[in-house]
Design goal:
Helix content is 54%, strand content 9%. The protein is an alpha/beta fold. The structure holds magnesium ion (MG).
Length: 362
């Protein structure tokens, strides 16, 4: 288990796990955008070496890491390597190659090397960000020193045996930190991966479609169950209630027999439960709204979008059907339904995304 890329809120973590909570998590060094770090006020980057800058024990800095460091330096960053390596000769060689310095002092999570780096460069804790791949050294040390940290995933699988043990504990901590995620990557100093399925809106739309499919199944099954499967007094509940409606002359207003008098009740029940299902899952899962505040207002907006979606569906279906039915009724009905459902899916998705579940800019 890994912390997904995003920003994390340490204060939302439990007292025990707070000290292990990074400011944010990123896929790797290259997905961090130095320009945005600079704009957020950072001036000193503390860089872990093994499995952050280069694979563990490697003597060769990947070209991509090298370029990243020189890009950060060109912006104006000071960079200090903060490593727990025992091989000082190798560390000095890496530092020299990158034209940076290496901190000396007690191993992370001690504050020692963090303080050394800040003293050397004159940076205040607010201006510092630690980038590293380990919670118990890089993140904990940063938190103890009062500096922000970005946790990256280790570059390679090969690791020091002690580190492998730490990874087991990291999993426990990670589970406790997941809920402190504040936002996904879109307002982070992180470059988004470019693949289309990595894009947040595409993922959201896929989730939205899954929720829609689930709601359809729920709606369908509730309707069918209520209409054809719930027994009552030797017959069906639908017939019984339908008969009552017919006798009370309510059903006769819109239906020819008891079964069809009941059907709107079955539809409405299925529809309302499906709507609640969509609201719940789209809020929690698709658009990741945590907490209960504003839930009532969001639900009101959600209903407005959904009801206007139904009206839009009826309107589009009607127009398309009327334009096409001259040739063939069945084809007309099918095309009208598919087209209207497709358009309304987008209407609902963007309505929920931009209106009902829009997050306040903080
Ligand atoms: Mg490391």
């Amino acid at each position: 288990m890994r912390l997904p890329p995003g920003r994390y809120n340490r204060m939302a973590a439990g007292r025990m796990s707070r000290r292990f909570c990074p400011t944010s998590a990123s896929e790797n060094l290259l997905t961090i955008e130095p320009q945005l770090l600079w704009e957020s006020g950072k001036r000193l980057i503390l860089l872990d070496a093994d499995n952050t800058l280069l694979p563990w024990r490697s003597e060769e800095i990947p070209e991509t890491s090298r370029l990243w460091v020189s890009r950060a330096q060109a912006i104006g960053f000071k960079i200090v390597l903060v490593s727990n390596t025992r091989n000082q000769a190798r560390l000095q060689m890496l530092a020299k190659e990158l034209n940076v310095t290496a901190a000396v002092g007690k191993f992370k999570p001690s504050r020692s090397m963090f303080q050394f780096a800040m003293q050397q460069t004159g940076a205040t804790p607010e201006e510092v960000v630690m980038i590293g791949d380990q919670i118990f050294t890089d993140v904990l040390g940063a938190n103890r020193s009062g500096v922000d940290s970005i946790l990256v995933h280790p570059l390679a699988e090969r690791e020091f045996i002690g580190t492998k043990f730490n990874r087991l504990l990291e999993k426990v901590i990670t589970r406790r930190l997941l809920h402190t995620m504040q936002s996904e990557e879109d307002d982070l100093p992180i470059v988004k991966p470019q693949g289309i399925f990595q894009r947040k809106i595409v993922r959201q739309f896929a989730k939205f479609c899954v929720v829609g499919g689930l709601s359809f199944l729920i709606d369908y099954n509730i309707r069918m169950t209520l209409q054809f499967a719930v027994p009552y007094g030797g017959g069906l509940l639908s017939d019984h209630v339908g008969n009552v409606l017919m006798q009370a002359r309510i059903g006769t207003l819109y239906a020819r027999d008891a079964a069809s008098a009941f059907f709107p009740i079955a539809s409405l029940t299925g529809g309302v439960i499906a709507l609640l299902n969509s609201f719940f899952w789209n809020r929690k899962w698709t658009f990741r709204i945590a907490g209960a505040e504003e839930r009532a207002a969001q639900f009101r907006k959600f209903v407005i979008i959904s009801v206007s979606g139904i009206l839009l569906n009826t309107l589009i279906s009607g127009i398309v059907f009327n334009l096409m039915h001259l040739q063939d009724d069945k084809v007309g009905a099918r095309v009208a339904t598919v087209l209207a459902t497709g358009i309304v899916a987008f209407w609902n998705f963007f309505g929920q995304r931009l209106y009902a579940f829009k997050k306040d800019p903080k």
